[in-house]
Design a protein that fits this description.
7-stranded mixed sheet, 12 helices, alpha+beta, single chain, binds 3,4-dihydroxyphenylalanine, 10 strands, elongated
């Protein structure tokens, strides 16, 4: 190898090394490149160094000097790259890093509009002395139907209108012993509370219910209800009407009007459907009525001693009315552009 060839090999190596260091995007890659070029045993610089004898005795000092220069050049390039990658460019030498720029703020989420509505409803009803109660979403037919005076042949118990769960051998049937279903109404909580406590009772229960409805602008297979129950001596329909009116004016505004239409529910007698007048339209928000004596008997209360009212309102409907939401599916699409508005 001539001196010229030796020097050319060194220069090429310096170029290659710089290119490899520049391309390294993380410390591991950089370390690999360091070993490749500067490795003490098998590094490329080392293998050129081993050939220094072939330049001839008289050229050795020049070749040696050049070798040292290239070595420290490669080492410097390595060091600079390492500083860049490990953020140790303490003197601010890296022109791509501007410490005065504002950082990226972590995004903080917020409570879902339905949860906000639930909190609001609990607060309004709480001021009238209604305490929040809860019940399970997986229910047995006794609490979802039987104790609520809904007979076996009632259409509301049809598997087409309920999510019955599979039991044991995988059979899904309402007639199988021990069958369970996703509750179709929060009226179940009336039963659960009355089984546990004696009157006077004044509770609300806010939670999810499930029905196999195809989703459209006003239906969704899961939605929320607010159930209310008041049981005491001499509770009358006038109490029911007053409580619902106070609730409606608090939640929807002072000018809201309330209307009761005669209806039928197995667990109330008489039963009504509850409409609120809103922007000139009567909108149905749920059902209500005086607790049926059969329901009291099912939980061991004496219907001669106590009376009560119950109501069940759709939470999504209330939330949508108040906020001008026109499609229930928007609430459950998970689209942040929608949710961020609340
Ligand atoms: N549970 C009924 C439903 O889901 C709503 C309802 C009606 C609840 C009348 C009540 C009531 O408490 O008294 O359609």
């Amino acid at each position: 190898m001539s001196l010229q060839q030796f020097v050319a090999a060194l220069d090429d190596l310096a170029d290659d090394a710089k290119r490899a260091f520049d391309a390294a995007a993380d410390p591991d890659t950089l370390e690999e490149a360091r070993i490749k070029f500067l490795g003490a045993k098998k590094g490329l610089l080392k293998s050129i160094q081993k050939q220094i004898g072939s330049v001839g005795k008289e050229n050795m000092p020049t070749a040696g000097q050049r070798l040292n220069e290239v070595k420290s050049l490669i080492e410097q390039t390595f060091q600079a790259t390492q500083d860049r990658l490990t953020g140790d460019a303490a003197d601010g030498a890296d022109p791509t890093f501007d410490p005065t720029l504002p950082g990226v703020a972590p995004e903080i989420g917020h409570v879902h509009p339905i949860t906000q509505t639930i909190d609001h409803l609990m607060e309004i009803m709480g001021r009238m002395g209604f305490e929040a109660a809860e019940g399970p979403e997986v229910e047995d037919p006794h609490h979802n139907f039987v104790a609520l005076n809904i007979p076996e042949d009632h259409p509301a118990r049809d598997p087409l209108d309920n999510f019955y769960l599979s039991v044991g051998d995988g059979q899904v049937s309402r007639f199988v012993e021990g069958t369970r279903l996703l509750r179709s109404q929060t009226s179940t909580v009336q039963i659960r509370v009355m089984e546990q406590r004696q009157p006077p009772i004044r509770i609300i229960s806010l939670g999810r219910v499930y029905r196999p409805d195809a989703p459209d602008a006003t239906h969704f297979p899961m939605f929320h209800q607010m159930e209310g129950l008041m049981v005491d001596r001499n509770v009358t329909m006038a109490n029911l009407k007053t409580v619902l009116r106070i609730f409606a004016t608090n939640y929807l505004g002072d000018d809201v009007e309330i209307r009761f239409r005669p209806s039928f529910f197995p667990f109330t007698e008489p039963s009504v459907e509850v409409d609120f007048l809103w922007d000139g339209n009567w909108v149905e928000f749920g059902g209500a009525g005086m607790v049926d004596p059969n329901v009291f008997k099912a939980v061991g209360y004496d219907p001669e001693q106590v009376s009560g009212f119950a109501f069940g309102l759709g939470v999504e409907r209330l939330c949508m009315r108040r906020h001008g939401i026109t499609d229930i599916r928007d609430l459950y699409s998970g689209d942040l552009r929608f949710l961020r508005q609340f």
